[in-house]
Amino acid sequence: MSTVSTKEENQEQQEEQKNEQEDEKATLEEDYSVPFKPLVTLDEVQVTTGEEDEDVLYKNRSKLFRFDKQGSQWKERGTGDVKILQHKDTKKIRLLMRREKTLKICLNHYVNPNIQLEENVGSDRSWVWNAIDYADEVADECVLAIRFPNSEQAKKFKEAYDNARTFMEKLTKESDKSSQEEDKEETKVNEHK
């Protein structure tokens, strides 16, 4: 009978220890609720991106590469959303891409009607083109490649780019005509003097 009572006593002691440990945990959790007050209060700042006066004609996630002539290899320039933007006033269209997280510009140039996208060798989901890029705030002539997650998205980008190219070609012709007319008028005015 003494062994039975010892087992019962051991079980009771173990249950008491468990209860005590649970009580200790509960009190520890309660004790550590320290109020947090920030040292500095930050005001919300309105950030201007330069895209406020532009309409988004196309937007999709992609990865951009630049061909390094010295190393004869492609170097990744960034991953993020590539956008085709049209300015509301001037109607000019540009390509813009910002890196994810940092939002640093890795692609920024106007769509040139003379530059066509070429299919990247061996891939149906990437395009290659030459451009004078202003991503680093200095004009840089470079070969760029853009890769999309699938071929369908790559085709949609190509369509949007070709539409932008066609529009820019018309816009360029219109501005050339108007500048030629202005030159003719200026010549007439100078002849009458």
Structure, explained:
- This protein is an alpha+beta fold and 193 residues long.
- The chain has a domain of 129 residues: Roll (PH-domain like).
- It contains 2 helices and 7 strands.
- The chain has a 7-stranded antiparallel sheet with strand order 4-3-2-1-7-6-5.
- The mean pLDDT is 84.
Quaternary form:
single chain
Distance between the termini: 133 Å
Please provide the ordered H/E string of secondary-structure elements: HEEEEEEEH
How many β-strand runs?
A: 7
Q: What order do the helices and strands come in, and which of them pair?
A:
Layout: H1 2-31, E1 54-68, E2 73-87, E3 93-99, E4 105-110, E5 118-119, E6 126-133, E7 140-147, H2 151-192
